[in-house]
From TrEMBL:
Gene Ontology terms: cellular component: plasma membrane
Domain MacB-like periplasmic core positions: 27-222
Pfam family, one: FtsX
Domain ABC3 transporter permease C-terminal: start-end pairs: 258-375
Protein name per UniProt: ABC transporter permease
Annotated keywords: Cell membrane, Membrane, Transmembrane, Transmembrane helix
Species for this entry: Halobellus rubicundus
Record-annotated membrane-spanning stretches: 28-51, 253-277, 347-368
């Protein structure tokens, strides 16, 4: 069934469709304004979602972590074993990883040297991901070395590295960016390698998500620090992710507001087009009224014309916006198919709906004016 056959069942709608085809240039220009408005709203909305997802992905690795160090009011130069046990009581099922740290210089076979930070840790697999080799749940022997450092010094798996007079075989290479802020020039050794340090330099808690991390951080603050006293310094990155998300939401709303301006301008253009059209067809409408066509039919005809402009502009604008969204997600997130998620696809629906509603509203006054024009006055011109 063709569009003409479908419209035959609704005479006023059929006349509206035919009227749009009588002046195709004016119809195309009015539709172009709607297309631009929909593209502005939907594209900016989807680009904002892509930016937000990329930011969330970048912060996701640290948002669920809490870092604890000795505070300015502590009587020890680090976190004690007794404090670690109390932290475990507060953390519940979250992983608690005490760490000791130092620094040293590694030397390659050809004499090249590189300064690295040394981390003593047992639960290495909780904080680090390796690109090559073994990543034991409990690091009791051997070493993990950052990939960039190994390449710079020409070291491979099984090669020995020396720290404090002891040799450790490289068991795995740490991916760049692994271990929260680590992953640069870093050597990870068993905790026993830094036995000369009595206390831990830091304790990292890895929670299930950012909300749990914030809850644990608040509980530790309450348990160890009273008033302005700071026995332990507690740092949670969950609030950073929350603040970034809030900022991006605000930015997204501002961008959509800017895009909506173009659709409002397009609505004014449609109002002008419909007014001009009804004035030009005043005599024709007068004849229709004279032969018995009711005001409601004239009203529906003009509103249908406005709705057609909104639907056509909305569909074309949504299709173009989808292309823009695919490109934005491919560039920013690396996966174009994520554009079909509800968070981004809703902006296509919003843009289309806004286009149809704005077009119909723009056609209300011309439709009312044409429907209430006395037939005799209309025939006189």
């Amino acid at each position: 069934m063709s569009i003409a056959d479908l419209l035959w069942r609704f005479p006023s709608v059929q006349m509206a469709w035919r009227n749009l085809g009588r002046n195709r240039v004016r119809t195309a220009l009015a539709t172009l304004g709607i297309v631009i408005g929909v593209v502005a709203i939907a594209s900016l909305g989807m680009a904002g979602v892509a930016i937000q997802q990329q930011a969330t992905s970048d912060l996701g690795g640290i948002a669920d972590e809490v870092t604890i160090r000795s505070g300015v009011d502590s009587t020890t130069d680090g976190v004690t074993d007794e404090q670690v046990d109390r932290i475990r009581d507060v953390a519940g099922t979250a992983a608690v990883v005490p760490e000791k740290s130092n620094s040293t210089t590694l030397t390659a076979r050809d004499g090249r040297e590189t300064f690295v930070t040394v981390t003593g840790i047992t639960q290495a697999s909780t904080l680090y991901e390796v690109s090559t080799g073994d990543n034991p749940d409990r690091l009791q022997s051997g070493a993990l070395l950052s990939n960039d450092t190994a390449q710079r010094l020409g070291l491979e798996l099984g090669d020995p590295v020396e720290y404090d007079g002891q040799l450790y075989r490289i068991r795995g290479l740490i991916e760049s960016g692994g271990g929260g802020f680590g992953g640069g020039n870093e050597l990870v050794l068993p905790l026993s390698a830094l036995d000369e340090d009595e206390h831990y330099d830091s304790v990292t808690i890895v929670a299930a998500d950012g909300d749990e991390a914030q809850r644990i951080a608040d509980a530790i603050e309450t348990r160890f620090n009273e008033g302005d006293e700071e026995i332990l310094s507690v740092t949670s990155f969950a609030s950073i992710q929350e603040n970034v998300g809030s900022f991006l939401n605000t930015l997204n709303l501002a961008l959509i507001g800017i895009g909506s301006i173009s659709l409002v301008v397009a609505s004014v253009a449609i109002l002008n087009v419909m007014l001009m059209s009804t004035i030009e067809r005043r005599g024709e409408i007068g004849v229709l009224r004279a032969v018995g066509i009711r005001r409601g039919e004239v009203l529906r005809m003009i509103l249908a014309e406005a709705a057609f402009l909104g639907v056509i502009g909305g569909v074309v604008g949504a299709a173009l916006s989808l292309g823009v969204g695919l490109a934005a997600f491919e560039v920013l997130v690396g996966d174009a198919t994520l554009v079909f998620g509800w968070a981004s696809i809703r902006y296509l629906i919003l843009g289309f709906g806004f286009a149809v509603v704005a077009s119909v509203l723009s056609g209300l006054y011309p439709a009312w004016k044409a429907a209430n024009d006395p037939p005799v006055e209309a025939l006189r011109g």
